[in-house]
Design goal:
This protein has one domain. The chain is 62% helix and 0% strand. It has 119 residues and is mostly helical. The chain has 4 helices and no strands.
């Protein structure tokens, strides 16, 4: 899978997770289709996809033994690094630590990892 295809997979997993786990109606930006996703966000999604893909590969498939929390934390920390890359001074919510993330976002991050892991 190319990095662009991986970025799309990441975005689709995010949207699916938001719809599944977020209580209430999501903000429009949370479910923006790929074609309308800003370039920086596409690049960030592709980078995180690639980091997860490589992590799964170098782990020899043993990432299946990680907890959902461990998987979600990995996605979250990779995303935070991208926020610092794309924004000199990102909003605090963009770089919030795992414990500060709402439960729906933690679950969505774990879903993203597992979607990439399956490919």
């Amino acid at each position: 899978m190319s990095q662009t295809e991986g970025a799309r997979l990441f975005r689709e997993a995010w949207i699916d997770g938001v719809r599944r786990h977020l209580p209430g109606e999501p903000k429009a930006g949370y479910i923006t289709p790929w074609g309308d996703t800003p370039q920086w966000e596409r690049e960030a999604a592709g980078a995180v996809y690639e980091q997860v893909r490589q992590f799964v590969a170098v782990s020899g498939g043993t990432t299946a033994r990680l907890s959902r929390e461990q998987k979600g934390r990995f996605v979250a920390i990779c995303w935070i690094a991208q926020m610092y890359k794309h924004f000199g001074d990102p909003k605090p919510g963009y770089v919030a630590d795992w414990a500060e993330l709402p439960g729906w976002q933690q679950e969505t991050d774990a879903d993203i990892f597992e979607a990439i892991e399956r490919t």
